[in-house]
Amino acid sequence: MSGRLVHVGSAVVDYVYRIDALPAPGTEKTASSYARVAGGGFNMMVAASRTGMRVVFGGQLGTGPDGDFLRTAFAAEGIATLTPPSPLMDSGNCVAMISGDAERTFVSWPGAESRLTLDMMKPVQILSGDWVFTSGYTLSYPGSRDALTDWIEALPAEVPFVFDPTPVIAEIPRSILDRVLARTTWLSCNTNEAAEIVGSGDAQTVAIRLLADHCQRAAGVVIRAGAQGCLVRLADGRTQAVPGFDVEAIDTNGAGDAHIGAFVSGLSRGMPPRGAARYANAAAALSVTRHGGSSAPTDAEIQEFLARRVQAASAQDREQEATT
């Protein structure tokens, strides 16, 4: 049985509008659909939970309708909240516009998740076997980043800490980012976020720089490349390119969250890094074939997907042998 995932990032309410294309400045669009859903860190937590990991939330939820909405969503997924509701404000929200090409544009409003103190985090007690995760969003908020960074640095040395810098990485002060990277056990980021840390270059060169210059205590880094899959660079020098899966994407929102949650869940259950990365690629591939940010698949769905891909590859190999 794997340990818990203790998520100390942010969760918000997403207001999702589906449109054919983004409106031009000064114009208006009518959405084809609208939904109010739990988002932010909730998507990663769902991915880990649905793939067999026990998940608890150690961040801040607010007092108000959005905080209540998130608590209900957490309970439905079996995710316990370790901290009491913030008395300061409601939880934040994000407007997500999903265009016809499956891409998305966000406008966010920070709430209770943007205010954090060490006293607020006292109820978050780390147990043997736990994994800890945070994202760049909480570190981008002036009212939360200092306390969270101090808390991360105080984690016991044996506790694995996973970090996803997210698209807001440029808003994280470099001094904060450097401290968090120095404590990171596994870094998962996309190609743009990796380049923001170390500069441009091919994925392998960037991964080498990340480990050598920024994540010197890390077991490895994962650089995600969307449909192309990901590259895993391990501290022992091995580099493993793990190809993605060809699927028809209808909504890429939450694909990175699905990848990270499934990857951590796989590692926690003893999968080798390459196996966990392939498992995560499958989770992300399945998630983009469904609407919604919290569209991560279950372990059974991932295993069935992978089995079908193996069968299809074997059938293709047999056809090729028959024609040679």
Automatic annotation (TrEMBL):
Taxonomic path? Bacteria, Pseudomonadati, Pseudomonadota, Alphaproteobacteria, Hyphomicrobiales
Q: Which UniProt keywords apply?
A: Kinase, Transferase
**InterPro entries assigned to the protein according to its UniProt record, in alphabetical order:** Carboh/pur_kinase_PfkB_CS (IPR002173), PfkB_dom (IPR011611), Ribo/fructo_kinase (IPR002139), Ribokinase-like (IPR029056)
Q: Which PROSITE patterns match?
A: PFKB_KINASES_2
Name of the protein in question: PfkB family carbohydrate kinase
Record-linked PANTHER family: SUGAR KINASE, SULFOFRUCTOSE KINASE
Carbohydrate kinase PfkB domain span: 5-295
UniProt KW Transferase keyword: yes
Gene Ontology molecular function: kinase activity
Which residues fall in a coiled-coil region? none
Task: Please report which protein family the annotation says this sequence is part of.
Answer: Belongs to the carbohydrate kinase PfkB family.
* Origin: domain of life: Bacteria
